[in-house]
Amino acid sequence: MPRKIIIDTDPGVDDTMAIFFALCSPELEVIGLTTIFGNVHTELATRNALRLLEIAGRTDIPVAHGADNALTGPFEGPVPFVHGSDGQGDIFLPDPAGAPADISAAQFIVEQLRAHPGEITLVPVGPLTNIALALRLEPRITEWVDQVVLMGGNALAPGNASPAGEANIRNDPEAADLVFGADWSVTMVGLDVTHKVHMKPEDIAEYETHGNAMSDHIIRILPHYRNYFESSYPAQGIFVHDSSAIAYLLDPSLFETKRWAIRVGTQGLGRGKTWPAFGKHILPAWQNRPLVNVCVGVDGPRLVALEAERLRKA
Ligand code: RIB
Ligand code: CA
To answer: Per-residue pLDDT tens for 209-244?
Structure first.
């Protein structure tokens, strides 16, 4: 039986690749997309999620609109210099034909977990606001979920949204601290590994040979995103953030992990930093917290090849 997943997403160029990667993997059954602010405002994230499912021919999959602001304050704003003002590399797609479901993201998550106890993995690849709201709405989702595998955080690596914090966590640190502190199984696929998953120019070029709608769309939206990376980092090509969370679901052996309690910085310059506790003397702030499965190593080339293999067969 395929593993049921809900992807909580702020599409976003790398979100797009992750969603297509999941849709092309028979081991996974995407039962819904829930949308959140981050790369774009939630309203645009919802429109993009609908567009992507239309491109993939999967309008059977529901989209549920999520929170428009963080738990404790307003959304600080999108990042058009990374994902384009349309969240799709400034290719400006036509409006989607479909509409989101008449249920909020948090309610959708709670209802699906209640209906399928033990069967669903939550895959957040944006800020964790919807997940935190779902926890507040129904704390028993920790019993009903199979596990949470999220793209976000930086345990030992520097941040990207600031020197301290990774974008998904920094966009709602209070929500992230709740998610890492709840009594469920969480795997953190953060910058410690995604900055080691490098899609080189030749890897990108290979997508031009696939000849399918999803890979063709990826080729269209990548140039803007790639320009950001090549002007911000020394390497040519891009880092693979959200698809790395999907790859973890497909083949955890790609990763080396550690079990650490995680707290999230919410104040000052350190806002958005995920702080792991290790060693023998665990300070009170990290005591009585569940251990998070933190990815610290990855076989980047094998991950990039896995994603290409799935999209090639789309
Ligand atoms: O830091 C990378 C993360 O922030 C990715 O999920 C990207 O899509 C943005 O949401
Ligand atoms: Ca994302």
So the answer is: 999 999 999 999 999 999 999 999 998 999 999 999
Residue 68 carries which DSSP code? S
Distance CA 212, CA 56 (A): 9
**Ligand 2 center to residue 282 CA distance, Å?**
32
Q: What is the dihedral of CA 227, 45, 313, 24, to 10 degrees?
A: 140
Instruction: Give the amino acid at 148.
Output: V
pTM confidence score = 0.98
- Whose tokens are 């039986």? That residue is 1
Q: Cα of 165 to ligand 2 centre, how many Å?
A: 14
Three-class DSSP category at 151: strand
Q: Is 38 in the pocket of ligand 1 (CB under 6 A)?
A: yes
Q: List, in sequence order, every residue forming a beta bridge with 298; answer none if it has no partner.
A: 255
HSE-CB for 167 with a 13 A CA cutoff: 22
Reading the block at residue 267, the tokens are 């104040």
Cβ-in-10-Å burial (0-12, 13-18, 19+) of 76 comes to middle
